[in-house]
Amino acid sequence: MPSLKTTIIALFAATATAMPASVRLTPRQMQYHALAKRQQENAAEAGLSDFDILQFALTLENLEETFYRQGFAKFPAADFKQLGLDDQQISDLQQIGKTEAEHVGLLQSSLAQGGVKPVQPCEYDFKFTDAAAMVQTAAVLENIGVSAYLGAAPLLSDKAILGTAGSILTIEARHQSSIRAFSKQVAVPQAFDAPLGPRAVFSLAAPFIKSCPEGSNLKIEAFPKLAMDVGGGAAPAEAPAGEAPNAGAEGAAGEAPKAGAEGEKAEGAGEGEEDEEGEEDEEDEEDEEVGEASEGAVEARAEAAAPAAAGPGALSVGSNFRVKADGTSGSEATNCAFTSGGVFPGGTAFSNFTQAEGCQVPQGVAGITYVTLTKAAPLSGVLTDDMIVAGPMAVTIS
């Protein structure tokens, strides 16, 4: 018969075996946990409640809903067909606008149920020029939306509100990938998306907002605007970034180059007037040329879509480009910060900044990236509002 001691030892052993093994987080998971904890502390320091963050999300959704509604009212389906989009793609693009309207309704309902009056839509200026510019700007807005929700999620403490935000985030990501596919770009350019804090996101959205109704202004102040220095361009040895449109969300919306198809169409019309006998043949050839040009028009525009001055493929690791900040804010800057999905630790990589040389794209940065000027470059890779001098602006790093 076993002794009492043997029985007790056996009982403890059986109990230990039945208990689940302790979960060990990987170093990367620990980094995410630390980042989420810092963000929640930052939200508390900024005085942002869960409902303040929902109001912020509603401000962005109001902007996006109005953007699509006004854009589709201005440009008929035929304009998008000239860009190479088929009927299904045009329908899908219109459906994106409808889902933005549903996001507005959900956020309004969530705020009202919490006893909070939802913010009202503002007056906007999207500087619509043509359908191609609209698609380009849509790519900008959807990318900002993904980064906004991704950055706001860790700031929320209420799980129900977090669930609401999460259900919108996944759809915003689908919007982003769809528009990239419509634009003949890689649908998923990187393995991770980059989160942005409320102030950085508002700085990207602010150029579209002219004014807001009383009581609907957020208690968030935009950073000074940062743009590509078109006059300065890139360093001579690099790709001709200075040839692309002006940087910043405002420039992306209103200063995109005209589609090549439009110029070729006008040129073809002039040739037809000079030679009436061959007019029909020339028109047929012209239509083919327009189709070919228009297929690349969306691609060329959307590749520079993130509000940046760099043209297609102009920015790559090691390349230099010059930037300019509103007012004299740039004089404080010592570094360029590149916030991009998959940059560890901290989410941001830094390089030195000088007025003469501008910024150099550091190693480890790829895909859609947010550039800011800063007055510090912490080794932790953590970018905080207090060190930002100007920005952000969005660029695509190849």
TrEMBL record:
This is Ferritin/ribonucleotide reductase-like protein. Residues 1-18 form the signal peptide. Keywords: Signal. The keyword Nucleotide-binding does not apply. Residues 232-318 are annotated as: Disordered. Residues 270-292 have a biased composition (Acidic residues). The keyword Mitochondrion does not apply. Pfam families: Ferritin_2. Residues 235-260, 293-314 have a biased composition (Low complexity).
